[in-house]
Specification:
Rossmann fold, alpha/beta, about 35% helix, 9 helices
């Protein structure tokens, strides 16, 4: 009887060890953070407007990676960081995960207005300004756009994630037949913050703008936007932007995220 018990226990140990060694590794997660141009409303086409993050999962093999859109409309880099959203995302990040961030559309505003108080100091430096925040009714030290980007990159990398910083998508604003670019503003600062923090940089603004210029102002206005909004694309525009994110991912040397794209997306 003792021999049978010993054999059974030994067999159980072998079987358990075999399970541990052969079970599939946990899937990594690709987290998306940003403003409403990444996830508008509840991410279901609220008001006919969409963010590109709502369609990005279609380009990935979701049996091998999970795509989680944690962007929140109305946020700047500052308010995403300060008002609880980043604190909710960061604990979810594990070693081997990926994070794509895109901010800038809401950073160009007052630091302490009574409506939103979401602006950041322009640039990527370490300068700061102490203000009274009329929204939170507390004193607050406000930093530069780049400071918040670098801070989130640093904290995500400390958790073992690979981080990609995007320049913000272009608005439906034109001058002399060319869509206005962010090359001297938040596009430039996004790149500087990415390089300074050791993140990958994806120049989404330029990728989309180049496509817009080819298609022309009239077609872009009619196809990708409605007449009442120059910032948030309709579904066709968001799908184009999502495809451009994938184009950027494929072009970045050394970015392992591309291995999780579907066979069709890799072509």
């Amino acid at each position: 009887m003792k021999q049978v018990i010993k054999f059974s226990l030994f067999s159980a140990i072998i079987l358990f060890s075999s399970f541990i060694l052969t079970r599939p590794a946990d899937k990594p997660t690709l987290f998306l953070i940003g403003d409403s141009t990444v996830r508008n409303g509840h991410g279901k086409g609220d008001g006919g407007l969409w963010g590109w993050g709502s369609f990005l999962h279609e380009f990935f093999d979701t049996t091998k990676i999970t795509v989680k859109n944690e962007a929140l409309g109305g946020t700047s880099s500052r308010t995403f960081f300060n008002r609880g959203r980043w604190a909710a995302v960061l604990p979810q990040i594990r070693k081997g995960d990926y994070l794509i961030m895109q901010f800038g559309h809401n950073d160009n505003g007052p630091l302490d207005d009574t409506a939103r108080a979401r602006g950041t100091i322009k640039g990527t430096g370490d300068e700061s300004k102490e203000i009274y925040n009329p929204i939170t009714k507390q004193q607050e030290v406000v930093y530069s756009y780049g400071w918040y980007i670098k801070k989130m990159v640093q904290e995500a990398k400390e958790k073992g994630a690979t981080v990609i910083v995007c320049s913000p998508i272009p608005r439906n604003d034109w001058k002399e037949g060319k869509v206005n670019r962010a090359s001297e503003g938040y596009g430039k600062w996004a790149k500087e913050a990415a390089l300074a923090s050791g993140a990958f940089f994806l120049d989404l603004n330029t990728l989309i703008a180049e496509d817009y210029d080819v298609e022309g102002e009239s077609k872009v206005r009619e196809t990708y936007f409605n007449t009442q909004d120059h910032t948030h694309p309709i579904e066709a525009g968001a799908r184009l932007n999502s495809a451009k994110v994938v184009e950027g991912i494929k072009s970045i040397k050394g970015l392992s995220l591309k291995k999780y794209l579907t066979k069709q997306a890799k072509k």
